[in-house]
Design brief:
Blueprint: E1 2-5, H1 10-21, E2 26-30, H2 37-47, E3 51-55, H3 61-66, E4 74-77, H4 84-89, H5 91-111, E5 116-122, H6 145-164, E6 167-173, E7 175-177, H7 195-201, E8 210-213, E9 225-226, E10 228-230, H8 231-246, E11 252-256, E12 262-263, H9 264-275, E13 281-284, E14 293-294, H10 299-305, H11 313-335
Parallel strand pairs: 1-2, 1-4, 2-3, 4-5, 5-6, 6-11, 7-10, 8-13, 9-14
Antiparallel strand pairs: 9-12
The chain binds uridine-5'-diphosphate-4-deoxy-4-fluoro-alpha-D-galactose.
Length: 336
């Protein structure tokens, strides 16, 4: 049995789906603060009796303990607050929820003799890059509280291995995009802050015009460069990391990205082409805390985990668009 914290959220739910499709039995632990019960219901209808849901909060050790009723072989830990801007405004919530929540989880794991964990870390732990593509030896100097919480947890995991033999794989995501290719689940944040869903939402009736945050960066067209990795590819890396730990692998950490950088304007043009819509766009000031470019060197994950991202940015935008149409319809129907 695999315990997935944050399994009702965007990346967590795609990972649960991939685990179920591989025949794993899964317990999802989620407080539904940003995840959705509709996502759990959809996963339950797919997983049938292989999916168990425990509603609870990482700040409540008794609730975490409830998720360990059955024998857990390993944990995949997604549950976290993850908005950079919000973390600058409310660092207290971020340190408490992300760092203390993870400490609680690690301690309950130890109490239950579970010593394997795959952890969602982030490219935000690197801060403003000194060089690109960024490899895993690049210095980690996060520039916002969100990245700092994830880096603190990475350090805790190193120490828990040394002292208590808890083995971890920390996966540093770059920009995750796309949805389930069968449109069963997808990205569902409220409010939405991410680039691709924001562009796509602006094509719907009542959608806000799309805004580009900064056109004066030192890049080929003046907009920020990011490395967009498809969510289905990304979750395959989690399964490989899980299986690596189950086979006795040592604590390690990997970048998950494609090694391809794309500018905001390039993403916007591709969205226009795929949707076939005219999208109105406003160029506004830079958003605070956005690094100029983030592109992953993914050679280590390729070599050790044997992970190869297969899907293109075009694939991600197509599946994200199918999902957004579905979500837009559901939300409009619910508000009627
Ligand atoms: N952007 C716009 N307009 C928008 C939204 C985004 O121009 O309406 C731009 C941003 O300025 C940035 C790029 O699009 O240059 C991507 O922005 P996202 O908000 O989609 O993603 P981020 O790169 O800010 O952040 C993502 C994750 C974080 C993680 C980070 C790691 O959301 O959790 O990658 O690099 F920390």
């Amino acid at each position: 049995m695999i315990l997935v914290t944050g399994g009702a959220g965007y990346i967590g739910s795609h990972c649960v789906l991939a685990l179920l499709e591989k025949g794993y039995e899964v317990v999802v632990f989620d407080n539904l603060s940003t995840g959705h019960i509709e996502t759990i219901n959809k996963l339950s209808s797919i997983g049938q009796n292989k999916l168990h849901f425990v509603k609870g909060n990482l700040l409540n050790p008794n609730e975490i303990n409830n998720a360990f009723c059955s024998k857990i072989d390993a944990v995949i830990h997604f549950a976290a607050l993850s908005q950079v801007g919000e973390s600058v405004a409310n660092p207290d919530r971020y340190y408490r929820n992300n760092v203390i929540g993870t400490l609680n989880l690690l301690d309950i794991m130890r109490r239950n003799n579970v010593n394997k964990i795959v952890f969602s870390s982030t490219a935000a732990t690197y801060g403003e890059p000194k060089y690109v593509p960024i490899d895993e030896t690049h210095p980690q100097k996060p520039i916002n509280p969100y990245g700092k919480t994830k880096l603190a947890i990475e350090g805790i995991m190193e120490d828990y291995d040394r002292a208590y033999n808890v083995k971890s794989v920390r996966l540093r995501y770059f920009n995750v995009a796309g949805a389930d290719s069968k449109t069963r689940i997808g990205e569902w944040h409220d409010p939405e802050t991410h680039l691709i869903p924001k562009i796509l939402k602006s094509t719907f009736q009542g959608g806000e015009p799309f805004k580009i945050y900064g056109t004066d960066y030192d890049t080929k067209d003046g907009t920020c460069v990011r490395d967009y990795v498809n969510v289905e590819d990304l979750v395959q890396a989690h399964i490989l990391a899980l299986e690596y730990l189950l086979k006795g692998g040592n604590t390690d950490f990997f970048n998950l990205g494609t090694k391809e950088g794309c500018t905001v304007k390039e993403v916007f043009e591709l969205c226009k082409e795929i949707t076939g819509q005219k999208i109105s766009v406003n160029n506004i000031n830079r958003r605070e805390g956005d690094p100029t470019q983030l592109v992953a060197d993914n050679s280590k994950a390729k070599e050790i985990l044997k992970w190869t991202p297969e899907k293109t940015l075009r694939d991600s935008i197509k599946t994200a668009y199918e999902w957004e149409k579905c979500l837009d319809k559901t939300i409009k129907e619910a508000n009627r």
